[in-house]
Design a protein that fits this description.
Structural class: alpha+beta
Organism: Cyclobacterium plantarum
InterPro entries: PPIase_dom_sf, PPIase_PpiC, PpiD_chaperone, Trigger_fact/SurA_dom_sf
Helix content: 40-55%
Strand content: 15-25%
Distance between the termini: 32 Å
Membrane topology: Single-pass type II membrane protein
Transmembrane segments: 12-33
Number of strands: 20
Shape: globular
Largest sheet: 7 strands, antiparallel
GO molecular function: isomerase activity
Amino acid sequence: MALIKQIRQRTGLAIGVIAVGLIFFLVGGDILGPNSMILGSDRTTVGEIAGEDISYDEYVQRIEQTKMRFQQNTGRNPSESDLSSIRDQAWQALIVEKIFATQYEELGMQVSDDELVDMVQGKNIIGELRRQLTNPQTGEFDREQLITFLQSLENADPQQQAFWAQQEKMFADSRLRIKYDNMLAVSEYATNAEAKLQHKSANTIADVRHIHIPYYSVSDSLVQINDAEIRTYISKNQEKFKVTESRGLRYVRFPLHPSAEDSAAALDQINGLIAELKETNSDSSFVVRNSEALNPFITVNPGDPLPQNFTNNVDEPEEGVVYGPFLSNSSSYVAYKITDKFEGDPRMRASHILLSTEGMTDEDKEQVRQQALDVLAEVNETGNFEVAAAQYGQDATSQRGGDLGWFFKDDFVTEFADAVFSANSTGVINRLVETEYGYHIIKVTELQQTLTQKVAILELELIASDITRNDVFRNADYFAANSSNPSTFEANAEKEGYTILSASNVGPTSRTLNNLSGAREIVRWAFNDASVGKVSRVFELEDAYVVALLSNKTEEGDGSINNPDIKAQATQELKNDKKAAYIKEKIEGMETLEAMQEAFPDASIGSTADLRLNASTLPGVGFAPKAVGAIFGLQESGEMTKPIQEDIGVIVAELNSIIPAPEIADYTRYQNEITNNASQRTSYMIMMAMEELAGVKDYRYKFF
């Protein structure tokens, strides 16, 4: 309904008011700032795409369209963080439009009138309309609402008709992009040779011993680095040291902590509300009106815990009793009331190990079934279900031991749910369960629970009052007024006991300084108005005032030894190179890993019995792709690699054995795997390539 309301309400004078208000809301004080067109500035270009300048007006118009879609989808106005995302979405939409328009034209791609009609009123209504036009009683898409709305457009005013035309264009553009992406995705193909290599990489296993000699095993005093070497190294490795435009800042933060008086006032206020909550007959409505909690009235499903702050303070809460107020970790006062307890639909908790069979032939499925039976036997023998899940599981749950959390029966496919909900005890179900996804080995971890609770949460944020904020601002303003350069900035901070913080490599689009959120205005000041050594005015953030000093500027270009960060990085890399050479020289001719460890006591010897060819890490060592590659270049038991330099140190490996990947009759599974993975990446990779070729230049940081 939000879509219809937006259209119906955009009439007459209201449209002008809304449009002007929207622009002021979107750009805030920028409209009267140094980049304002109203004040006559000629700086009206927010970027460049494929050689075409993007004007401020065009970009703001696209922001307005994106913001309106956000409101339609969410039913609320965007927050400041939402607006940041909306601006990025609008920019990406412009890039897509400018870059892909010629692609669509060259390929002859279009959305016909018949197709568009089908999208907005035919058999294949697009998702955005379906979400907006729902029956409030059933929650389902209501076609009658859509028909009524479309019929009303014939007699609608021009603004409403123009708005709908804009929506239709957006729907068509979206469909064109889907067509383009689908065309690219289905063009992916993997050869049988690629599939064989994928199978070989995944199933060739080496049993190895290895020694890791970290760089700290060699004292820094044994390697000498001079500036000439650093300059040469940076010059030869500019691909590593290219720099983007950035700023360095130093700043003093004046936190807005509530005073004792603020705390007492908040406590009095919430105690008054608690008294009303105890007497009200409509708990949910009361907390929705009066609570500042994100979700003031919640349903706690079977198995789920009550809010932690509640259970930390109350052992056995009773229905109908108000508990609190308690001070929360987020500096607020909170009170809780269980308004209802009842027996709801049952939930259970389980873990699983999934061995996928999607897209496989019957023969391949049988191989997977046999493997699953072996895993089930291993789990029953060892009892290490979580370890087996991490080793064999083929979905995202493997990273958490196969845990699926609490769930209702309807949350899962029938075969899986029936197996779990028929269990009478916890533990591993001693049979495989087959679903459309593959074979599951299931462990029931919690039996059925049905207790459902409804909880009213009354929360008031403990914030600094206007009086407190004014006191803090006066301190910050006095500091800023008396600090005109780096020397006075430091001297005044030391005199008053203020801590000076530093933020380096701040980019033009940054919205934070270290962990200081909402700092966009400070960043804009640093890039648009400040010169090195200049001290800012007082910036107001949500929880603090900030006074900043621009300490340095870095322009886009080649890296230099004059950049402290680049010099430090290059120095460390040079040291590591020299330490690696020292280590290699010292262990040359040694025939055992133990002998190498005697030479470098800080080194560690480990073993890996099941290292796979497609691995990039050595367990217990770290990221070591060159070492893994060298290991699979060995052939004989007892053969050792040469010393291999990695980012983490020097590695030498000794081969115990290699088990080659077994031959299989059909590599279709691996072809599908390669194709699917490539298809998922294609759209993104094409977008990145076209954006680079189009020479996109982003100047939005000057305005937003």
